[in-house]
Amino acid sequence: xxxxxxxxxxxxxxxxxxxxxxxxxxxxxxxxxxxxxxxxxxxxxxxxxxxxxxxxxxxxxxxxxxxxxxxxxxxxxxxxxxxxxxxxxxxxxxxxxxxxxxxxxxxxxxxxxxxxxxxxxxxxxxxxxxxxxxxxxxxxxxxxxxxxxxxxxxxxxxxxxxxxxxxxxxxxxxxxxxxxxxxxxxxxxxxxxxxxxxxxxxxxxxxxxxxxxxxxxxxxxxxxxxxxxxxxxxxxxxxxxxxxxxxxxxxxxxxxxxxxxxxxxxxxxxxxxxxxxxxxxxxxxxxxxxxxxxxxxxxxxxxxxxxxxxxxxxxxxxxxxxxxxxxxxxxxxxxxxxxxxxxxxxxxxxxxxxxxxxxxxxxxxxxxxxxxxxxxxxxxxxxxxxxxxxxxxxxxxxxxxxxxxxxxxxxxxxxxxxxxxxxxxxxxxxxxxxxxxxxxxxxxxxxxxxxxxxxxxxxxxxxxxxxxxxxxxxxxxxxxxxxxxxxxxxxxxxxxxxxxxxxxxxxxxxxxxxxxxxxxxxxxxxxxxxxxxxxxxxxxxxxxxxxxxxxxxxxxxxxxxxxxxxxxxxxxxxxxxxxxxxxxxxxxxxxxxxxxxxxxxxxxxxxxxxxxxxxxxxxxxxxxxxxxxxxxxxxxxxxxxxxxxxxxxxxxxxxxxxxxxxxxxxxxxxxxxxxxxxxxxxxxxx
Length: 686
Description:
Layout: E1 12-17, E2 26-31, H1 40-117, H2 123-154, E3 162-164, H3 166-184, E4 187-192, E5 200-202, H4 204-221, E6 226-233, H5 234-241, H6 250-255, H7 272-285, E7 293-302, H8 326-330, H9 336-346, E8 351-356, E9 360-371, H10 386-393, E10 397-401, H11 405-417, E11 421-425, H12 428-434, E12 458-462, H13 474-483, E13 492-497, H14 502-511, E14 518-519, H15 524-535, H16 543-555, E15 559-563, H17 567-578, E16 583-587, H18 590-597, E17 605-609, H19 617-633, E18 642-646, H20 654-659, E19 664-667, H21 672-683
Parallel strand pairs: 4-6, 10-11, 10-12, 12-13, 13-14, 15-16, 15-17, 17-18, 18-19
Antiparallel strand pairs: 1-2, 3-5, 5-9, 6-7, 7-9, 8-9
Helix pairs in contact: 1-2, 1-17, 2-9, 3-4, 4-9, 5-7, 16-21, 18-19
């Protein structure tokens, strides 16, 4: 009935039964039809749940571990940030301290040398003192460059936005290097496009620093030829650079085959020597209105040694030079270009260069500035007095005799700044024809038709008009024409030269030139002074003498307190102020200054050193202002102008001086120009 009994197949099962019968055993035997399936689904589900829970736990654990790691990293980052900020503050304080400690004795050295130069010295002693002073100023310049680099790296450098005259800045820069270039016979010149506004708004100090660095490098590496600074509007130069050889004006195309540069030497950038002439053509044809924002294109071209191709990649790296022998041969630290490029980038510009070894280099940069109002410059004695000089020369005309187109355009630019009407001739015969009354001369430019033949007041002849010293013979051709029976009108003949020997000066006088020779580099104020001597306007006071006279007027009879813990600095400052007639008293600490300036007192101004032991200048000033407030409450108004006087060029900023209620700031070693600016601002209000 149940089939065969087979217990080996796993389907048979025996279960014992107990019915309470002691004599019999009962059992129940069952056999399954098939084997019971294993619980795979249950096992799989359980395994899945276990895996999911394990995964969730792992994710939670890893997330917790990651959060802990992020928190730890954040904590470390905060610690590093605090350390970095502390290190940055320490670095700035270190640089400020080092600057103060270096500049303080340098102030004494330069000040004492200046006082020495004001005494009676023989020629040798004068030369020694002047050389020592120049070396000291070079050291101060190096210190300033290192500090500028530090400020750029820390992001603490800020740009001003004040009105300034770019043409005056270029004149000042050329004056700095005229001695070296003139002695070596290097042509140094600057040209600013007519479309560049007279007044711009920006940071004149930093722009001066950029151009001075570029020109200084060119002077350092140039032994012959020229150094040429050009300033145009970016839109004009961008249009010029897009021109193809087919679109070059015929006048320029004829000369493009020759090296008609400023000095005749080849240059690294073949287009740069024509930028002036091509942009000039655009200037005369463009009548578009300029926007409020001005983008300038500044280039400095030289015919120096050039930069080797393998060194051009690292030329803008700080403290790097073309090769290891450069610093030994030419000097310098290699930091100027790095600082200049950083400053250009801060002004939303770019700096580029082209260079050929043995030919020269051309550095160019763009700067974004704003248009200023000419009236905003006022009567500032430190801006170029072009507009004043216009009234003196506006009715005069001049003839420029020069065979070099670029060079003659530069001369025209400077004369037109003075208001003269100018004609350029490059040919000797044409020049002679212009000096013959009622002769028919071909007029090249329509805007020159106001200049009548034979009516020139001045004739300016380039010494090297058609070759070396060829211009010296120009008066002899005039005499030849006169002896030939022609009526020649001989206006004042003035020679323009880059360098002159004593023998050449004698020859020029014998040939009939005026005693006054215009020496390059050309600057408006220098040309005006020469022309005044030639045409008999009188020797009017120069800006430097006016400045000295103004200082004399401001300081004469004033009672001034000088506060400095350094004895040498007190002597230097007192000597500089006494030079202009001031009565000076000195104090060696902030506490002593407070005692002297407690109202009532008779002091007209105070020069306060900032870094002093026990009580610095800021704290002393705050205490003095508190005493003045107390006096004001009692009905007595006291306010003594306090000028910060310090060698700390990082920490002692103008804003910090204002917060302490100081009236001005003079960095040490201070010179006549900045002393005049500071004193005129505070004493003119008293």
